[in-house]
Structure formats: structure tokens, C-alpha cells
């Protein structure tokens, strides 16, 4: 036999399209060529494969070896094709039987000694291989990750010789086994640690209940970051599908994905110097950015006005759509980006406006310029604007024990369950006819909202966001209908709208 086909998969966003690794050993002068739109790392496979075969005691055929990665118009990247190329050569040169590889997908980067090294993007690859009904062989280091797909025919190999022994029927490969359940909640960030701040705690609970975005405004040291870090601990537990989606993104990013934490809600906190590409993703080979790594979790932007304005503007579309499409020359990738945005900012450049413990020396022009770094359209897309005042030392000393995260999480879970039963999604994702149907507001509540819209000059987008927040408040209260009290609280939680005409943000 001079021809062999081995199955593998490429990576294109969260998709893992099937690739046929076709190997032909022909007559002629010794040569080794790889075709099928390979990038540089793939082209270098021939050197790794040649050395690995020699060091494992196999012969490289003396003729012209041609490897075609089909389909030819699909970009191929990474070292994942080393193992299927090596096995394809051995099958084509009759050193291995072809039977075991007819419906088997192979992945893995080879060392010069034949060790099979780990690759990124194993989880999306395993999920698509499961749908195709194929047997899959992964690097042994990735086997725990592959097990998350609950694929009954996923196996691991640590060395090229193990795959060869499996092909000869001499030794079975280790199976993926039962997936790790994963830890669900962190234990080191409890809401009980936050003393005082009843208004901010209430806003955090409402945001968690409805999946709303939140802006915290307060002086340095008032507890904004502390509150944001505790939001994941009160969010409802992810469903398995949600956890797999989030884990697939982290797997694709290749940034130290941990199998034992795959069910935890992501919490991403990029520095304010981050670029637009770092935030939304990109590069010559599109990779997910921070907004996708925060999928089904929390994206925390501290010191919001310090971010480049152009960087912040790229958040507008994914905040509405829940996904991001990255287009590059010759390739396009789509990543999910349903994240919950939490942002924090000071009330003024020095941070002491309205602070009883310090004096603000900022001029009105400086304050206006500082706030204008965050555009109105972006603020419109943030549901809750809440002040976080500094807590006095004596208040901290005599404060009663605060509610723990587990208590608040129970109320949030109950409210979220009401939403799923009623409309199949969180309130933050409601829009159009589904919003009108889900709100069920009485005439008095709508009249109050109409009055607030005129008085505060709310945009249509802000109007709908107030309705969504009011719906979440009603769900926390166990009410089927949105009442005037729910609308009134929702309006008070848009602090920047209420203070838009004032030169300062005050309580």
C-alpha cells in the first residue's frame, strides 16, 4: 500500500472541522512535502515526524512522500497534525495495518523522541468528534479535558509507540473515563466580608438575579472591587451546557485550562491598558479575547474611564448580541460573548468628590472631561449605575454580620428559576415582544416609568433596561406583575441618569 488516509480536525473558532490527512508514498527522489494550506508550524511537522519515526525504530520511506491536508482551502495551524501524519506514513508504507484507523481521529504534537505533547482546543474537538461518532486519540495530558465531553470512545496516548502498539492489537489505549465534576463555587470571596454598603449589596443581588450589567461609582477604597469579585459567588450554578461552552473557550485560548474548575463561573479582570484585540480577541490566527473568556461569567473593568475610549466602544455590539465575529484575511472566527459586565470608576479624577473623609479639588471642567471618557451609548447599555460611598471606620466596627453569599445565592437562584420558567432566559436578554410579554406591568407602574423617562430624558434603550431591572426586582420579591415600587427602585439604580444635569455625582 502506498496511500493512506488518517482523520484529524483543524480549529476555526469554536468549530473543529474534519481534516483528512492523505499520505502518498510515490517513486522518485526522496522528498517530503506537505500541502493543503499549512502554516509554518504545520510545515515544520516533516522534520519532527522524520526524527520521531527514526528514534522509534521505524523507516522513513525512500520515495517521494506527499501529505495533503484536505480540504485544501481550510487553514491548518499548530502541531496537532504531527501524530496523524506519522501514522499515515507508517500505514502508507505498510508498517502498520490500516484497519484500526478507518474511523479514528488522531491529534498530537510529536517530540523528536516520539513523545506526544498536549495541544490546545481539545474540548471543542472532542465535542465535535462525539457528534460524528468517531473514535478519538488525544495526547495523554489532554485526556482529562477530553473526558468533559462524555465521549465514550476517547483515548489518550503519551508516545507514538503506544499508538503503534494499539494498531497492532498488542495493547489498548487508556480511555478518558468519568469526567471531573469540577468545583462549583469559590470559597475565598464571600459577600459576608463586605461590611455596610446595603445599597451596593442590593444592586449586586439584582444584577445577579437578572444577569444585568453594573457600574459602581465611588472613592478609592470604598469596596468597589471587593463587591465585583463576589458577584460570581452569588450567580446561579451553570448548567452543563453553559459550563461546557465556557470551558471550550478557555480550552481554545490555551492559557492553562484547569479541568477541576470547569464548572466555575469565569471572572476576568483585564488591566486598563489592554488593547481592543486583547478585549475582543483577534490576531493573525483569531483567538478569543477577554469578553469571550468571560462567557457565562463576569467581566470586571476597574477604573473604567482609564480604558482607551476606542477599546470601550468595541463592547457595545457584544453587550447586545452576545457574540463577537473576528474577520481576518482569508479566515473568520465567531466566539460567544454572553458576559455580565461589572465596571468601576471614581466620581472624579482625584476620586474624592462627595467623600466626607477627603477634599476634592477637581474643577467642574475636569470632572466633565473625566466622565466623558465613557460614551453615552455605552452607559446606556449598562443597566445599573450605583454609588458606593466610603464606609466610616466606626460603622465597620459596630456593623452586624452581613449575609453570606450562600444566602443571597439562594434568593438569586429562585428569581432566575422564575425567569427561565416564564421566558426561557434571564431578564437581561429580553427584547422586543418577549420583553413586553414578560414584564406584565400595571398601569401605575408604566405611568411612573413614563414620567421618569420625560424627567430624566431617558433613551429608548435606557427605558427598556429600566423595565428589565424592574422585572428582576419583582422576581426577587416573588411577584408576577411589575409594580410601581419595583419601577421606582429600578429608576433610582440608574444614578448617572438621575445626576446627568448636575456637576457632581452625589448621594
Can I get a quick summary?
With 507 residues, the protein is of the alpha/beta class. The protein contains 22 helices and 18 strands.
Task: Describe, in plain words, how this protein is organized in 3D.
The chain is α/β, with parallel strands linked by helices and 507 residues long. It has two domains: 165 residues, Ribosomal Protein S5, domain 2; 308 residues, P-loop containing nucleotide triphosphate hydrolases (Rossmann fold, 3-Layer(aba) Sandwich). It is 38% helix and 16% strand. It is built from 22 helices and 18 strands. The strands form six sheets. A five-stranded parallel beta sheet has the order 11-14-17-10-18. It has a four-stranded mixed beta sheet with strand order 1-2-4-3. Strands 5-8-9 form a three-stranded parallel beta sheet. Helix 19 runs parallel beside helix 21 and helix 20 packs across helix 21. The longest helix is centred in the last third of the chain and has 19 residues. It is elongated, with a radius of gyration of 28 Å. 46% of the residues are buried. The C terminus is likely disordered.
CATH class of the largest domain: Alpha Beta
Number of domains: 2
Say which CATH homologous superfamily of the largest domain is assigned. Answer: P-loop containing nucleotide triphosphate hydrolases
End-to-end CA span? 81 Å
Shape call: elongated
Going by CATH, the architecture of the largest domain would be 3-Layer(aba) Sandwich
Helix and strand composition category: alpha/beta
Rounded to the nearest angstrom, the radius of gyration is: 28 Å
Helix content: 25-40%
Q: How many DSSP E strands?
A: 18
Low-pLDDT parts are 501-507
- The percentage of residues in β strands lies in 15-25%
Describe the strand arrangement of the main beta sheet, using strand numbers: 11-14-17-10-18
Question: Count of helical segments?
Answer: 22
Amino acid at each position: 500500500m502506498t496511500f493512506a488516509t488518517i482523520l484529524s480536525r483543524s480549529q476555526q473558532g469554536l468549530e473543529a472541522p474534519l481534516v483528512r490527512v492523505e499520505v502518498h508514498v510515490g517513486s522518485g527522489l526522496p522528498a517530503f512535502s506537505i500541502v493543503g494550506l499549512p502554516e509554518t508550524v504545520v510545515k515544520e511537522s516533516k522534520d519532527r515526524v522524520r526524527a520521531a519515526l527514526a528514534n522509534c525504530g521505524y523507516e522513513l520511506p525512500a520515495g517521494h512522500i506527499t501529505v495533503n491536508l484536505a480540504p485544501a482551502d481550510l487553514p491548518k495551524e499548530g502541531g496537532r497534525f504531527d501524530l496523524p501524519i506519522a501514522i499515515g506514513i507508517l500505514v502508507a508504507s505498510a508498517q502498520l495495518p490500516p484497519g484500526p484507523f478507518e474511523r479514528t481521529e488522531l491529534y498530537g504534537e510529536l517530540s523528536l523522541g516520539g513523545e506526544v505533547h498536549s495541544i490546545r482546543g481539545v474540548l471543542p474537538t472532542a465535542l465535535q468528534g462525539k457528534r460524528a461518532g468517531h473514535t478519538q486519540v488525544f495526547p495523554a495530558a489532554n485526556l482529562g479535558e477530553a473526558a468533559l465531553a462524555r465521549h465514550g470512545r476517547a483515548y489518550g496516548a503519551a508516545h507514538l509507540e503506544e499508538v503503534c502498539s494499539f494498531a497492532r492489537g498488542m495493547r489498548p489505549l487508556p480511555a478518558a473515563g468519568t469526567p471531573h465534576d469540577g468545583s462549583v463555587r469559590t470559597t475565598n470571596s464571600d459577600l459576608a466580608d463586605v461590611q455596610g454598603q446595603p445599597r451596593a449589596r442590593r444592586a449586586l443581588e439584582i444584577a445577579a438575579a437578572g444577569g444585568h450589567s453594573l457600574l459602581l461609582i465611588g472613592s478609592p477604597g470604598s469596596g468597589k472591587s471587593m463587591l465585583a469579585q463576589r458577584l460570581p459567588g452569588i450567580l446561579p450554578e451553570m448548567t452543563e451546557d453553559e459550563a461546557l461552552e465556557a470551558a471550550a473557550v478557555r480550552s481554545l485560548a490555551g492559557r492553562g485550562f484547569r479541568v477541576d474548575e470547569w464548572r466555575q463561573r469565569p471572572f476576568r479582570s483585564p488591566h486598563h491598558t489592554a488593547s481592543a484585540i486583547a478585549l475582543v480577541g483577534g490576531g493573525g490566527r483569531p483567538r478569543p479575547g477577554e469578553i469571550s473568556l468571560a462567557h457565562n461569567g463576569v467581566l470586571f473593568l476597574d477604573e473604567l474611564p482609564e480604558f482607551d475610549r476606542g477599546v470601550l466602544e468595541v463592547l457595545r455590539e457584544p453587550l447586545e448580541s452576545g457574540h463577537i465575529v473576528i474577520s481576518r484575511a482569508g479566515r473568520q472566527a465567531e466566539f460567544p460573548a454572553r458576559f455580565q459586565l461589572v465596571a468601576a470608576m471614581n466620581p472624579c479624577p482625584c476620586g474624592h468628590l462627595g467623600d466626607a473623609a477627603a477634599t476634592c479639588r477637581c474643577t467642574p471642567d475636569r470632572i466633565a472631561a473625566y466622565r466623558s471618557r465613557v460614551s453615552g451609548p455605552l452607559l446606556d447599555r449598562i443597566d445599573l449605575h450605583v454609588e458606593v460611598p466610603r464606609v466610616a471606620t466606626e460603622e465597620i466596627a459596630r456593623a452586624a454580620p452581613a449575609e453570606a453569599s450562600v444566602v443571597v445565592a439562594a434568593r438569586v437562584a429562585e428569581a432566575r428559576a422564575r425567569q427561565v420558567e416564564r421566558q426561557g432566559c434571564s431578564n437581561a436578554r429580553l427584547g422586543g415582544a418577549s420583553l413586553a410579554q414578560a414584564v406584565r406591568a400595571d398601569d401605575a407602574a408604566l405611568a411612573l416609568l413614563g414620567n421618569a423617562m420625560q424627567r430624566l430624558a431617558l433613551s429608548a434603550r435606557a427605558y427598556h433596561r429600566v423595565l428589565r431591572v424592574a422585572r428582576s426586582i419583582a422576581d426577587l420579591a416573588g411577584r408576577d406583575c411589575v409594580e410601581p415600587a419595583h419601577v421606582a427602585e429600578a429608576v433610582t439604580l440608574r444614578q448617572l441618569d438621575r445626576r446627568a444635569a448636575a456637576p457632581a455625582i452625589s448621594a
